[in-house]
């Protein structure tokens, strides 16, 4: 692959990283601490939107395969999603101040559900592309390593820059609107750039089956069949979903840690710098290690490192302070590997399936993969909302001053450290059973 192809594909992660980061970071907080929505209701809003996302992802995957078969490109759905997302993302953070908590929650639910739909139209075909851009084991590692470099840069940009944009005005309503508009446009631009790579897909028309039946049942059946017939896919997906739940939980909890543990809303930007700055440097390093000892072993090392770092953060319960940025930085180093390596392993899984069942079904896998990733991140926000509700977290409207009970602060710390560490430990069980190695891919 040329450097230009790699760069344009990686640029798409400016959009995927932005959308994955900013709503996960600020949306729950926006609902509970600006719109006055109760914590449990805020979790329900996000969960419902994500459930819808899970429902449509397999359908989009099948439609993407049909586009490839008919037009030799997955570009059409990617373009629709990239053009629609900036408008819908802005609307999510444009709730009129006169609305009460109930109406505001409904507004966010509808706008965010439509935004998630636009994102899936882009994301599902985008994830399917690496399996078609190159057949080589190490070349895929190279492609996905640079994608994760851009992804981590996007997380830094949106994780620190999004909350900073929110403070351009003393009026939170204006601040959130500015953040939504600016970030939505940047996300859309990143997505549009990467759609140009889809035009280069070297798959002949008719490579995927185009049957007579095209109903929703057939689309779901295709995704479920891909999951059932591929043991490597099931194990890799289970590992990734557990880790998405862990990182989604930490992402949703970062703003709460900054506000109620570090006692500074602006500290969330420092948390993200501590997380992402090391990851930017570490991503190429994980690629080098993977070429020496294999993706699966390197993935396990990164996961263990992340789990240990997360667990150590539990110490802020007894000694809160700036030392928290050190384990967060270590987690950032590990996070780079946890993102790039499973994404580089997914095309290997697809290739392994193609040897038996034929080419042109990457959309089936990417649709189920995106649904699984969505479930993980959605359950992260939902889990946080449940922990907050159970520990007595007090929601507030913009500008209102409240005092949180000690139990709520403890719940925030536990959700940012102990629970993610347990989830990472569980993910290592499924990863240990993943069967594919370099010889299985390059030998084919």
UniProtKB/TrEMBL annotation:
Signal peptide: none annotated. It comes from the Bacteria. Keywords: Membrane, Transmembrane, Transmembrane helix. The chain crosses the membrane at residues 12-31, 37-56, 77-96, 102-122, 143-161, 173-193, 235-258, 270-289, 298-318, 324-346, 367-395, 407-431. This is MFS transporter.
């Amino acid at each position: 692959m040329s450097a230009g192809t790699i760069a344009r594909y990686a640029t798409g992660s400016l959009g995927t990283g932005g959308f994955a980061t900013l709503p996960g970071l600020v949306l729950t907080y926006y609902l509970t601490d600006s719109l006055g929505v109760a914590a449990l209701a805020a979790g329900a809003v996000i969960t419902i939107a994500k459930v819808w996302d899970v429902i449509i992802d397999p359908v989009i995957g099948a439609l993407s395969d049909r586009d490839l078969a008919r037009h030799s490109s997955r570009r059409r759905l990617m373009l629709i999603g990239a053009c629609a997302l900036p408008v819908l993302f802005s609307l999510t953070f444009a709730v009129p101040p006169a609305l009460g908590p109930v109406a505001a929650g409904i507004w966010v639910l509808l706008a965010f559900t439509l935004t998630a739909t636009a994102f899936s139209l882009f994301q599902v075909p985008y994830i399917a592309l690496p399996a078609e851009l190159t057949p080589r084991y190490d070349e895929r590692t190279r492609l996905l390593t640079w994608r994760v470099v851009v992804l981590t840069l996007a997380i830094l940009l949106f994780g620190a820059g999004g909350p900073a944009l929110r403070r351009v005005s003393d009026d939170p309503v204006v601040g959130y609107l500015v953040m939504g508009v600016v970030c939505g446009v940047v996300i859309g631009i990143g997505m549009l750039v990467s759609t140009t790579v889809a035009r280069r897909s070297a798959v002949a028309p008719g490579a995927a089956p185009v049957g007579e039946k095209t109903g929703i049942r057939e689309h779901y059946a295709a995704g479920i069949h891909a999951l059932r017939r591929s043991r490597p896919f099931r194990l890799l997906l289970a590992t990734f979903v557990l880790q998405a739940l862990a990182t989604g939980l930490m992402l949703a909890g970062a703003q709460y840690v900054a506000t109620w543990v570090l006692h500074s809303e602006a500290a969330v930007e420092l948390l993200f710098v501590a997380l992402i700055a090391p990851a930017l440097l570490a991503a190429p390093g994980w690629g080098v290690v993977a070429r020496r000892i294999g993706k699966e072993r390197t993935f396990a090392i990164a996961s263990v490192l992340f789990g240990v770092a997360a667990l150590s953060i539990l110490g802020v319960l007894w000694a809160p302070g700036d030392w928290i940025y050190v384990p967060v930085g270590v987690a950032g180093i590990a996070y780079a590997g946890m993102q790039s390596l499973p994404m580089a392993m997914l095309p290997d899984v697809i290739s392994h399936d193609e040897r038996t069942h034929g080419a042109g079904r990457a959309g089936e896998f990417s649709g189920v993969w995106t649904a699984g990733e969505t479930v993980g991140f959605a359950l992260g926000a939902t889990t946080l909302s449940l922990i907050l509700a159970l520990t007595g977290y007090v929601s507030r409207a913009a500008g209102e001053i409240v005092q949180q009970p000690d139990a709520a602060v403890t719940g925030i710390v536990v959700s940012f450290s102990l629970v993610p560490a347990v989830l990472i430990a569980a993910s290592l069980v499924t990863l240990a059973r993943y069967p594919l190695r370099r010889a299985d891919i390059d030998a084919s």
